[in-house]
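If your schedule permits, I should be very grateful for your opinion on a structural question. The matter concerns a single protein, recorded as an amino acid sequence and a row of backbone structure tokens. Could you please explain, in whatever detail you think fit, how the structure tokens follow from the sequence? I set the record out below, with my sincere thanks for your time.

——
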Amino acid sequence: MTTLWIVLTLLAAAWLVARLVVTVRRDGLGSSRPPVSHADWSDMASDLPSHPYRSA
């Protein structure tokens, strides 16, 4: 009887993990990039170097 409960618990855990994976994938978490809040500083001032601390 103990084996039955272990098997049922493992099946329930696998089902919950599968539902979590489906929910997270459907939500789009991690698959879409966040919106850009501002342009790069090198785009705003074209005469500035893109890597100010890099040595030649």
In short: Residues 46 and 55 are 19 Å apart (CA to CA). The helical segments are 2-27, 41-44.
